[in-house]
Amino acid sequence: MLHWIKWIVVACLGFMLLAALVGWFVLSSSLLAGVRGHLVETVLAKKLGNSVQIDGGVWVEPGETLNITAEELVVARPSTPDTHLATVQKVAFDVPLRALLRGRVVLHDISVSGADVTLGSQQGGKSPSPVSKSSAGTKAASVGHKAMTFLGSHQINFADSSVTYRDADNGLDLALQLETFGLGKSKDSAEASVAVQGKGALNGQDVTLSGSFSETQPFSISASFSDVDVDLKATPGSDGIDTGYDADLTATVSDLNQLLAIFKLAGTVNGTGKVTASAQRTPAGGSAKGDMEFELTTGESLTVNADIADLTKPKDATVKTKLRLYAEGDEPPATHSRRDLKLVGIDMDLTSRPGQQPLRSMVITTNGFVLDTGGVGPPPISVSDISRTSDGKLKIGKAELRIGPPASPFVLLEGVIGDLLALSELDFTGTLDSPGGNLIAPERLQGDAALGRIAGSFELLGDTKTLKLSALQLALKDTDLWSLNTTGSAANILRFDDVTLDINAKIASVSAFLKALDLEPGEDDIAAGLELKLSSHDTDWKSSAKVTVDDSDLLADLTLQAQAEHPTVKGSIKSDLIRIGHLRDIVKASIELSKLDETTAKPQPGSQKDAAKAPGTDDAEEGPLRDVTLQPIGQAILLSGVDVDIKIDLEKIEMPKGEGSIHSELVVVDQKAKLGPVKFEYGGGHFDVSAAMDMAKNPDVLSLKGSTGGWDFGHVLKLLKFKKHASGILDASFEVSGEHASVRRYLRSLSGYGTVSMRNGSVDSQLLDLAGLGVVPWLFEKGRKKNAVIVCLRAPLNVTNGRFTLKNGVVETPKVQLVVQGDVNMRNDTLDISGQPRRIGKPLSRSPWPFTIKGSIKDPKVKVKDGHNREHRADGASTMPARRKICVPDILQLK
Asked: Which residue, 289, 292, 296, 361, is CA-closest to 324?
C-alpha cells in the first residue's frame, strides 16, 4: 500500500513538474513566442474591434495574476487594413489566472506607453468604404456604448503618447502630445461614468485635460491652456445620451495668439475672444444657438450670433454678423474727402427659410456714407473652401461678395483670400450687370428695357493697403438709344494711385432718348456726346474732356499737382463754337431729366417713407445710400486747400441776331474762390456776374453778385420757344448768397437783395390771367385786348433764408399804377401778396379792387375785395410833384 502511495505521489509531482515545464515553455520559451503573440493579438483585436499586429514579442510573468507585456504593436485602420491607425511601443496588462482557466479574459491595470495614433482624411475627403449616414450613426453609437461599458470597469493609463490629426483638404494639423493620460471608472461617482485626466501639449501649447463622461448622468470635461479655456457640460436624456441631451460649450480666450498657435496659423493678433454654444437634442430633432465675440487691442471687433431653430432642418437658421474696425467712441470723424474715406463697420443679417429664398440685409458704414441694402435673396457675403496652407495662412478658397439689391446685385465679386488674418493675397474677379437706367434714376428706371443694361468686368489683386484694379471694361448693351464704353485701371484703387480712365458716351437722338423716358422731347433733334480721359502718376493728375452737341463743342483740359508746396490745378475751358439753340435744347433736356429725380424722391401720401419723413425736412434721402458727407468731386478739390487757375475762353457764341464771346477765369487762392467777372454782350443786352466762395469759413455758401440789362424780354422768350407774346427791356441787379448743395437748396437758403425792372413792355392778356392780374379788368387796358401795355415794372427784393420780401413793388400801365407788397417763401413753397391798383397821380384815392394772392405757389388763392381802402401820408403830404417819376409809388412822391 505504501508502495502505491509512493508511486502516486511521485507521479503527481512529476505531472506537476511537467505541467510547470510545459507552462514555462508556453509562457516563456522563444520557440512559442509566435503562439503567445497570436493569442494576445486575438484578445486585443476582440477588445478594440480592429486587427492588431505584434512585431516585438510578448512576455508573460506567471503567478496568480499573469502580467502580460507586448511590444511594438500596430493597430490597423478599420476602413483600410493595409494602413496604420496607431503604433504602440509597449502595452502591459494583468489577467487573473483563475478567470483565464475558466475561459474568461479579464484585463486589469492596462498601461500604454509610446502610442502614436494618426487620424485624418484623404485628399478629396472621400472615404475608401462609404457607408450610409444611418448605418454609420448606428455603428458609432454601438462602438461608443461598448467603449463606455469597457472603460466604466477598467483603467487605462497612457504615457509618452501622441494623437495626430491631419486633413488633406483643409490643411488642419493637430498634434497632441500626451505626457500622461488616464481613462477609467470615476472614483468619485457611484454611477457608470468614465474619468479623464491628463496633461501634455497640443501643437506645442501646454494643456491639461480633466473631467468625466457618462451615458446617463450629467458630466463635464475641460481643456485648459495658459490663455485658452474650453469647458463642455452636458446632461443626457432620461433614456441615455443616445436619445437626447442638453449641452453647453464655453471657450474663453485671453490671448488670441495662443489660439493661432494651437491651430498652427501664422501671424500676430493681439486680443481676446469668447465662444458660447448650446444645443438641445431630442428624438424629434432639437435646436442650437451660438455666440462668438472677438475683440482686438487695436479696437477691431467681430460678433456673430447664430440660431438654428430645428436641427433636422439646418436651413431654418438665423445668423447675425457685426464687424467693427474701430472701438466704440473712437470712430473716425465724418469726412468730405475720398482720400480720408475709411470703412467703419459691416452689419449683416441672414435668415434662411426652408423652401424659400433667404431674407438678408447688409449695412456697410463708412465715415463718408452708409450703404443699406436688404430684401430677399442670397447672402451678401459667402465663403467656402476654408483651409490652412502649408505656411500657416488661413485661406478662403472661394469668396463671393454681392453689392446692391438682393434680387439683382449690380456688382458680384468672386475670388480667393490667400491670407484671411492679414487680409492679404486678395485675388478677385468682378462682374457688373445692372439696368442702364441706374445711371440716370436707379429707383425710377430699373425696369426700363429700352435703356439697355450696363455690363462689364474688372480684376482686383492685392491687400487692404495696396489693391490693384485692372482690366476694367464697362459698356452698355441691348439698346440703340445711347452708348457707353469705359476702360480703366489703377495701381492702387484705395488711394487712386496711377489711374487711367477712358469714358466715351453718346446719345444719337436726344429727343428719342427723352421719349423713351416718357419725357417731353425738344423741338429740334440733336445728338450729344462726352469723351473723358483721366490719368494720374504719383500725385499728378491730368484730365481731358470734350462735350459735343451736334457741332457745338466744349473742351476742358486740367492738371493737378497735389504734392507741391502749394497744390495747384491749372487748365483751360475752351470752345470754338456754341450755338445758343443747342445750349437751349440741352438745358431743356436737363430740366426734363431732373423730373425723374422729383418723381423718385417724392413719397406717396400715406407711404412708410412719407410717414418717416421728419416734418420740416427739405429733402428726404432715398435709396440705399444715406448719411452721405462726401462732397462732389469738384467741390472736394476746391475745399482741399488747392490753388486753382482755370482760363475760360468761349470764342464764338452764335445767336439769331449775331455773335458773342465770353472770356473769364476761375481762381482759388488761400481757399478763396472767385469766378469772373463773366461779361457778355449781345443784341443790346449785357450781363456782368461774379461768383465767390470762402472755403475756409463758409464752404457751403456760394455768393453771386452782378447786373444785367438791355435784354429784349420778347426775344428771350422766343429763344426759350415760349409761344405767348411779351416785350420789354429787362434790367436787374443782385447780390445774394446761399447753400449750393442743389438749386432747390440754394433758393431755400438764399439771402441778400436785388432789383428787377422792365420798361416799354407789353404782355399777352392770357399771361395776366395766369399771373392772377386778370382780376382787375380795367387795370391794363380799357376793354379786353389781346396784348396789354406795361409802361414799366420795378420790384425791389430783400431775401432772407429763402423768403423773398417785396416792398413797394410797382407795375404801371398808361393809366394805372399797381403797388404790390408781400413775400414768397421758398422754404414752405407759399406766397402772400397784396396789391392795390389806383389811377396814376391819385395815390390817396380809394382803390377800386384791392386783391390778395395767398397759399401754395403751385395753387394760390386769389381774392378780390370791394374797394374802400384809402391811403394817407403821416406827414400830411397830398400834392403830386409837377414832374412825376415812373415806377415809384405815387404816395411816396407826394409833397
From this structure: 296
- What's at 639, amino acid-wise? L
d(CA 595, CA 405): 24
Percent of residues in the chain assigned helix, strand, coil, to nearest 5: 15, 50, 30
> Amino acid identity, residue 281?
R
Please answer whether residues 560 and 637 qualify as being in contact, where contact means their C-beta atoms are separated by less than 8 angstroms.
yes
Other CB atoms within 10 Å distance of the CB of residue 387: 15
Distances (CA, A) of 531 to 237, 544, 556, 560, 569: 74, 8, 10, 19, 20
Distance CA(373)–CA(366), nearest Å, equals 14
587-596, 726-735, 816-825, 873-882: which has the minimum mean pLDDT?
587-596
The pLDDT of residue 45 is above 60:
yes
Q: Cβ(117)–Cβ(164) under 8 Å?
A: yes
Q: Could you report the per-residue pLDDT of 804-828, keeping only the tens digit for each?
A: 999 999 988 888 888 999 999 988 8
| Residues with Cβ within 8 Å of residue 722, at least 6 apart in sequence | none
CA pair distance 816, 778, nearest whole angstrom? 9
Mean pLDDT of the chain: 80
Q: Is 241:210 a contact under the CB 8 Å cutoff?
A: no
**Which cell numbers in the block locate residue 256?**
488670441
Name the grid cell of 378.
442670397
Closest to 476 in 3D by CA, of 443, 445, 447, 503:
503
Strand pairing of 467-477 and 482-492? antiparallel
Q: Is the dihedral of CA 410, 411, 414, 417 positive or negative?
A: negative
DSSP β-bridge partners for residue 303 = 293, 322
Rounded Cα–Cα distance for residues 99 and 101 (Å)? 5
Cα three-residue angle 44-50-52, rounded to 5 degrees: 55
> Does residue 346 contact residue 362 with C-beta atoms inside 8 Å?
yes
Q: Distances in Å between the alpha carbon of 573 and those of 64, 693, 703?
A: 110, 20, 22
Letter for the amino acid at 860?
A: P
Element (H, E) at 49: none
Name the burial class of residue 69, with classes exposed (0-12), middle (13-18) and buried (19+) by CB atoms within 10 angstroms of its CB.
middle
| End-to-end CA separation in angstroms for the chain | 180
Nearest to 676 by CA among 653, 698, 654, 708: 708
Distant-in-sequence contacts of 186-192, Cβ < 8 A, 24+ apart: 186/212, 189/214, 189/217, 191/216, 191/217, 192/148, 192/152, 192/216, 192/217
Cis peptide upstream of residue 405 (ω within 30 degrees of 0): no
Q: Span 18-45, mean pLDDT?
A: 53
The three cell numbers locating residue 829: 413753397
E strands, 140-191, where?
A: 155-167, 173-185
CA dist list (Å): 506 to 200, 232, 478, 527, 590: 73, 67, 15, 8, 15
- The set of residues, in sequence order, having a beta carbon less than 8 Å from that of 256 and lying 6+ positions away, is 269, 270, 271, 272, 273, 294, 296
Dig out the grid coordinates for 29 from the structure: 520559451
The pLDDT assigned to 324 comes to: 92
Instruction: Give, as one character, the DSSP assignment of residue 846.
Output: P
Inter-residue contact 192 to 147 (CB < 8 Å): no
**If DSSP codes are grouped into helix, strand and coil, which group holds residue 456?**
strand
∠ CA 525-530-531, nearest 5°, is 145
Q: Would you say residue 145 has pLDDT above 70? A: no
Distance CA 387, CA 383 (A): 11
Residues 143, 134 contacting (CB under 8 angstroms) = no
Per-residue exposure over 268-303, b if at least 16 CB sit within 10 Å of its own CB, e if not: ebebbbebebebbbeeeebbbebebbbbbeeebbbe
> Is the pTM for the entire model greater than 0.85?
no
